[in-house]
């Protein structure tokens, strides 16, 4: 029987959250590339031991998070703690809001994917295309920059369905991936367990966080937002499911405030998440009727961006190709210009209704041969 003392165990590897020390730089195309080989992207696998690879990736992601946070701040976004009553050292989840939140007549509210960090759409897009494209930077600039990209006096809210684990030692919220990458006594020690000390009140999961943002931020009419403000909701995967479920259960007080909804990779179903009382099938004020007329969804597809798809009956709203075939997290980076254009159209015309598309699959023409 072999017995190892603590000093005999391999030390947990340490990687600095510094691009240069990690061996990378940002080129003139806003791409992260190796210093030793400016054509090479981030190299994930550097060791046969997964712990080394995971910690190096977390160090790189921390670099990206800092860069993205700085750029979003330069665009006028500031952090807001959820719940609002929590102090800087108490468990809280940070979200990002634009400085004009309390005065804007229109608010674009984004619920991202629970697997992503705040302000990040897809790390793979950051790595292959550019930092701004894979994060919310390009999107935020389009929303907040006056001109043809957005209509009205627009404010932006980026919710945070991913960073819901409170790390007591560092005093910050983080994703489960960041939690698993925190230092351990040795490289072979098991990951730490979560206790109630790692929970943020009212934000124990992504659905609770969605509820907290609606109830604590947006619903504070006349305090944090204008009483007559119109809300556009963008929901990504589970974030969209959370928004649909919340509004389905609280539609009456929200009916006059929600302008339109855009979803990427919708996870709700018409029969389960859009229940309708008997005799209200055609009731124009119901939430299912709103989803049918002022909501649209973008799905994984090899078809060109914006092409109608056959999934409408399942989700209760018109569905379109995102132009992304493989990765759910890449839908938003590719489809948000199309989303924003449609949200502008819906905002400008309060009576606008999506035409209900009826997709008919036509069998291939027969060539007359048996």
From TrEMBL:
Region span, Disordered: 183-205
Organism from which the protein derives: Aspergillus lucknowensis
UniProt signal peptide: none
Superkingdom in the source lineage: Eukaryota
Domain (Arb2) ranges: 15-305
Pfam families linked to this entry: Arb2
Listed name of the protein: Arb2 domain-containing protein
Positions in coiled-coil regions: none
Record PANTHER family: FAM172 FAMILY PROTEIN HOMOLOG CG10038
